[in-house]
């Protein structure tokens, strides 16, 4: 492996609380020149807000290092000639669309796409129904999903994420969303392309067994699951098998070193394998 894709929420922080060892893990990647990108389905804040949050936690990052669904969606909308989408996203995220050259539609105006992101507590019946009506009244406009994450872990517990609202709109409108975030394979390919590495030469690290692990594996990448964020022990009992399991992002450097000298995780049992130097990797 020559590159790393890193999820953010649940891996480097939970809410505003940093995960211990995250800054040190990124510093280790930087020191060794290991290409890496931060890939997130977060649409509640623009990239500049994500960068500011990471830097406040001591994590070295530039905007170009962060791939979000907004960036992917803006490029897709432009390629499809959709210049006036109805944006169901927070105000800060809508402003990033504008910065990327996409003008959102006015609530009373016509729209050439419906874009759904992490609106959070901004959802109510009227807002959800407006999105549905736009889709129902014009079967030709696409439903664009900024990811399909089902839920995430905030400081006060689990919260519904964008996937739940997208699925409701798909069901009501009878159409399938264009997904421009995890777990879409195209999103992972774009992230890998930004590393200039082949898919089987990069590894995904995340806390979501479906969006991060299953999504990456379907795109041809090995995937590492961390026991932080939304991780649930039951994740290891299902059909989806991560290529490795770490206690947290802090264990990434040791896992990387052990992998290079012969250590690993038994994919059939989830048991920790001993590396050639006699040490063990973080795992179940």
From TrEMBL:
<keyword id="KW-0460">Magnesium</keyword>
<dbReference type="InterPro" id="IPR006357">
    <property type="entry name" value="HAD-SF_hydro_IIA"/>
</dbReference>
<dbReference type="InterPro" id="IPR023214">
    <property type="entry name" value="HAD_sf"/>
</dbReference>
<dbReference type="GO" id="GO:0005737">
    <property type="term" value="C:cytoplasm"/>
</dbReference>
<dbReference type="InterPro" id="IPR006355">
    <property type="entry name" value="LHPP/HDHD2"/>
</dbReference>
<dbReference type="Pfam" id="PF13344">
    <property type="entry name" value="Hydrolase_6"/>
</dbReference>
<dbReference type="Pfam" id="PF13242">
    <property type="entry name" value="Hydrolase_like"/>
</dbReference>
<dbReference type="GO" id="GO:0016791">
    <property type="term" value="F:phosphatase activity"/>
</dbReference>
<dbReference type="InterPro" id="IPR036412">
    <property type="entry name" value="HAD-like_sf"/>
</dbReference>
<dbReference type="GO" id="GO:0046872">
    <property type="term" value="F:metal ion binding"/>
</dbReference>
<protein>
    <recommendedName>
        <fullName>Haloacid dehalogenase-like hydrolase domain-containing protein 2</fullName>
    </recommendedName>
</protein>
<keyword id="KW-0378">Hydrolase</keyword>
<keyword id="KW-0479">Metal-binding</keyword>
<comment type="similarity">
    <text>Belongs to the HAD-like hydrolase superfamily.</text>
</comment>
């Amino acid at each position: 492996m020559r590159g790393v894709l890193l999820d953010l929420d649940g891996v480097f922080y939970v809410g505003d609380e940093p995960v211990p060892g995250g800054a040190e893990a990124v510093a280790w990647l930087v020191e060794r020149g290991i290409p890496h990108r931060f890939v997130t389905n977060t649409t509640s804040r623009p990239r500049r807000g994500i960068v500011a949050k990471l830097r406040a936690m001591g994590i070295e990052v530039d905007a170009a290092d962060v791939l979000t669904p907004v960036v992917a969606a803006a490029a897709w909308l432009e390629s499809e000639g959709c210049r006036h989408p109805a944006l169901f996203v927070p105000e800060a995220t809508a402003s990033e669309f504008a910065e990327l050259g996409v003008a959102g539609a006015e609530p009373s105006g016509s729209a050439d796409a419906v874009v759904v992101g992490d609106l959070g507590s901004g959802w109510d019946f009227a807002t959800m129904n407006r999105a549905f009506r736009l889709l129902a009244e014009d079967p030709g406009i696409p439903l664009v999903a900024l990811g399909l994450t089902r839920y995430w872990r905030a400081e006060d517990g689990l919260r519904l994420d964008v996937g739940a609202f997208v699925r409701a709109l798909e069901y009501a409108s009878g159409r399938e969303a264009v997904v421009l975030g995890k777990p879409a394979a195209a999103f992972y390919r774009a992230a890998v392309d930004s590393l200039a590495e082949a898919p089987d030469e990069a590894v995904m690290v995340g806390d979501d067994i479906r969006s991060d692990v299953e999504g990456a594996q379907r795109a041809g990448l090995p995937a590492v699951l961390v026991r932080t964020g939304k991780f649930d022990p039951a994740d290891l009992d299902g059909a989806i098998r991560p290529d490795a399991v770490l206690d947290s992002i802090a264990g990434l450097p040791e896992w990387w070193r052990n992998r290079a000298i012969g250590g690993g995780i038994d994919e059939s049992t989830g048991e920790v394998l001993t590396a050639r130097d006699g040490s063990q990797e973080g795992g179940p």
